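Database export, one record per block. Field names are fixed; values are copied verbatim from the stored entry.
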Amino acid sequence: MYSSLARSCFRHPWRGVVVWLVILFLALGASQRLGEAYSGDLAIAGTESHDGNDILKQHFSGAGAGPAGTIVFRAQQGVEDPEVRSAMGDLFARVKALEDTEVITPYDPFVGALRIAQEGSEAGRIAYADVSLPPGTSGTEAQDMGRTIEGLIEELELNSIEGLEVEVGGIWFAELRPPESEAIGLAFAVFVLIAVLGSVMAMGATVAAALVTVGIGAASIIVFSNFMTVPDFAPAIGLMIGLGVGIDYALFIITRYRDALGEGHGREQALVVALDSAGRSVIFAGATVVVSLLGMLFIGIPFVTGFGVAAAATVAVVMVGSVTLLPSLIALLGERITTTRVRGIIAAVLLSVALFGFGAGIEPLLGALPVAVIVLVAGMFGRDRNPLRRKLRPRRERPVRETGWYRLSRAVQARPWAFAIGGTLLLLLLAAPVLVLRFGFADESNYGPETTTRKAYDLLVDGFGAGANGPLVVVAEVSGPSQTAELNRLVQAMAATDGVSFVSPPIPNSPIAPTAAAIEVRPTTGPQAAET
């Protein structure tokens, strides 16, 4: 089968390339037509948090059960100052008018006082409002809401009022600007592939095949999100997995193809040899990864199932592309797969620099991209007189028995126990940090001091203590005065607990006939602290 596939790709290379490009455009079209519908709901059925969220959804209209953030403000003249109260009231009214938002302000007649600092030098000068979004709101939608609130603050010119500082807090509302790890990965991949393959063309074929297949995989994840629960972090992880295995599989096949050429095989027969050996291994390895990822279906958690399907689909597409699209590209390149010109190596290095600059957010490095284009264009003229057109001397392919890897394999075979023990000790040493690993969630203190997210975090710490950035919510269903009295005793017990700085009185869902109550508990330490 692999031999027939290799011969078909070699004799009809354009057919394979066109088919994959058509699939890419169809996948992108479908994803654009349907749009993304990622889920931000990471609840796990059967846990206390899930049960508590159900109570919030049922009795509190979902307030607090979905993504949430805060609007934090400091007024040197006091938060009850008429001008401050009027300006902030206008903002809160505008936010309440937004679709699907629940806002509890410090001016609320029932629970507002809990949101105004009562102790220390900032008493009466720092306050905050809670902004809640519906359960199931995606991370992208929550971030958009954060940008909308920031826009309202600018529109109302609140920070222009003397003595008033207004910030938007909460990790859900934060503008997430992580390094574009995919671009950084590609930048290093370009360097590594050129070093390993010694050919810009071979590197280009490897990266091109990976990008096309990963593009289809990414589009398929968007499509899947419309029919199943796919978490909003699935695309980034799926993309990284796809790029990793795509480049790995392509490198394996191209290396075997070039080895076969060095052994004296013609180009068609070399491709047959490559697919019949490396291609077979790629299919086996890819299928193993796909089956492993699909094992997440048996965990029974919807968002984990969605992530497993999304990642498995990406790997499956990359795997098939490695034995169909890549051989077609190899056939189209012909003898050029072993050729590298000066213009190519310079342009590849400049492209890698630009990719790294994009991923790391270093804008001056992006200037390498137009320079790379200029080098490529300049290298097309002048024929042999142009130094950019000069071919680099091909790397001498050493016989297998002269390579360092061959010598290492012989050493391992000669002393298997020594290498087995040494390798195990090395792995244990590398795994040692697991013994002190502590799981948890990052908080807003990790954001830059210039961001509104970090400023809001610091304001809450100044006014309410570190625990105000990660309060716990205790909810309970109540059916009568006796149960309300029990909750009051619970509040007293929690307030006397070490590590607790504040416990609110039970907040009923209705002042007349309450069916549930919520209690806010603030620890003395921040969200990232082990004590919390």
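Remark 1: The chain has 17 helices and eight strands.
Remark 2: The mean pLDDT is 83.
End of record.
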